[in-house]
Amino acid sequence: MKFYFKELSWLSFNERVLQEANDEEVPVIERVRFLGIFSSNMDEFFQVRVADVRRRIFFAQTDAQRKDSERLLHLIQQKVVQLQEQFELIHRKVIKALRAENIIWASGEQVTEDEKAGLREYFDNKIKPQIVPILINDTTDLVKVINEDKTYLLAQLQQSGQRKYAAVQIPSHELSRFVILPKKRDSKLRKVLFLDDVVLLNLASLFKGIVPFQSIIAFSFKMTRDAEYRPSDDIEQSLLERMEEGLKQREKADPVRLVYDRAMPIHMLNLLSKKLHLNQYDAMVAGGRYRNTKDFLSFKNLGGKKLEHPPIPALKHPRFELADNVFDAIKRNDILLYYPYHRFAHFTEVIRQSCYDPHVLKIHMCIYRVAPNSRIIHSLMDAVQNGKKVTVMVELQARFDEEANIEWAKELTESGVKVIFGLQGLKVHSKLLLIHRQEEHAIRRYGVIGTGNFHEKTAKLYTDFSLFTCHPEICSDIENVFNYLEQPYRFYPWHQLLVAPNNLRTRINELIEREINHAKNGRPAEIFLKLNNLVDNALIVQLYRASRAGVKIRCIVRGMCTLRPNVPQLSENIEVISIIDRFLEHARVYIFGNDGDTKVFISSADLMTRNVDHRVEVACPIYDHAAQQDILAIMDMQWNDNIKARRIDAEQVNEYVTPVSERDQIPRRKRLRSQLKIHEYFKRRTYD
């Protein structure tokens, strides 16, 4: 088999996230949060990838296609059950580790009578006003009334042999999911409960006097829907209107997964299955008593600083600091930032100064995801007030950010910004900024090209590159990207940038072919890639060809990798690792050895068919010598990571490059945890 299943590869990635939660060297509060990341990832996996496999079954054109998809779905479900078992085992370990730090993660059975009294008061005053149970009868359509991102209790009320049922939503969007009990005098212990347990303890009072019952039991469940939606084709509607209408479909989409408390009696589970219209292709996953464990992401540190990662302060880049303004800095040299090691404030400062610099004439920007209260967006609106011409490309189909981007598009339009929405059938995933500035007798263009979103929050959590440049040809190409978005029927020459869907695939193939020719002629040949996902079959076949020709290929892939490395006579010269650590590895880098004349690119594009053929993406060459040195040094440090790197083999078993049991045998001076080493590198880094 040449290719690993991409869906199973994605689950393999999420298993690496679980490994972080299981790693006792990781501070315990961070381990809790990794459990939350795993759960959040799994929700999206079912919403997007499992839903897609399910559609392939329903709409298969041949029996063979349907059987292949059914087999894949079966393999997915097997792996999901396995991961759920791992999750619960690790969760128990983490609870034990919290207890060792005097943090008691208690259940309802572990609270005293005095504590119950306090919780009863909290329930009556804060929780009960937020709850309206859904009484389930023959006509109730649970698919329409259940919210997929919420936790529910299925309650059974029994009276004289008759059973009635109700769905009770846990109000975790209105209140904290975690209820911290008052600390007792002279005690170091901190006790915390799930909001779910407080509701369970007081469930009887919710129905008393309204629904008669002699006994009541309840068990948790959560439903996940298909996240696909189909905007209307009504030409009389604006794109915004069609998107808003399409998003409403998602709220009522078919369920694809039910996760439930395995203690739930079979007759209650059957009721849920029937009311949610589940079929043989929908996942029903038994778990522990708590659902929506993605809320673990917001678990507070109730102990000392040692229970969390120590902060890594973002650094100022010397090239910006030595100049009077951002434009003088960029004129002197290209500047490469690497978030979160460098301050994202450098980027926001470029925007801020552009808004009132009298020499700035025009600003163009692509927006895919931005922070909820984006300073960048507000600055762009301020620029209009200062007479600047501002054009913003807003991608309305950024998955799960559609509603936010629709609102930003409306607000920008109302402020006088020219808003464009890109091309039919193509998502605009490029991370671009272009500024026109009048200088002496000519207009100089300044550009920013990034591997990740211009997002103040994620820039503190994701590793990404941003290149600041006034290179004439690069900036000309950036301008042509914006021209292409508005007038795609015209021809645009690309002098420096690799632009999808126009020439990115062709240029990458040419670069791979050149390495193959070097290898065949006995010259050094190397390819080094850093990606989130490597799943494009055609490009993988090219990498296999290069491997067989003798090209040495190294890949650092965070997420999905359908390439199968180290397979005899197929990929013997290909090695793949993955790094999961405190920051999410998000940058994309392509490096080609080119017989010693190394070519380095940063890009917004993973090597996925959707990115290369169905999105507007940009890869940019790095010409500044210092910037090239930084990228090569970072890649080298990551490749030699012996703490957080996992080796991705043909079967994706996720072995650490250095097994956890052998870490202590590595001399301290030789321990290399790349995310920490990179920060040390930039702290010492100087520039001419």
Q: How would you characterize the overall build of this protein?
A:
The chain is of the alpha/beta class and 688 residues long. The chain is 38% helix and 22% strand. The chain is built from 20 helices and 27 strands. The strands form four sheets. Strands 14, 18, 19, 20, 21, 23, 24, 25, 26 and 27 form a ten-stranded mixed β-sheet that branches. Strands 10, 11, 12, 13, 15, 16, 17 and 22 form an eight-stranded mixed β-sheet that branches. Helix 16 packs parallel to helix 17. The longest helix has 38 residues, at 63-100. Mean pLDDT is 93; it is low at 232-236.
List the helices and strands and how they pair.
Blueprint: H1 6-22, H2 28-58, H3 63-100, E1 103-106, H4 113-127, E2 134-136, H5 142-145, E3 152-159, E4 162-169, E5 178-180, E6 190-194, H6 195-201, H7 203-207, E7 215-225, H8 239-251, E8 255-261, H9 266-275, E9 283-287, H10 318-321, H11 326-332, E10 335-339, H12 345-356, E11 360-367, H13 375-385, E12 389-394, H14 402-414, E13 418-420, E14 427-428, E15 432-439, E16 442-450, E17 462-469, H15 472-486, E18 498-500, H16 504-520, E19 526-531, H17 537-549, E20 552-557, E21 574-579, E22 584-585, E23 588-592, E24 599-603, H18 609-614, E25 615-621, H19 625-639, E26 645-647, E27 655-656, H20 674-684
Helix pairs in contact: 1-2, 1-3, 2-3, 12-13, 16-17, 19-20
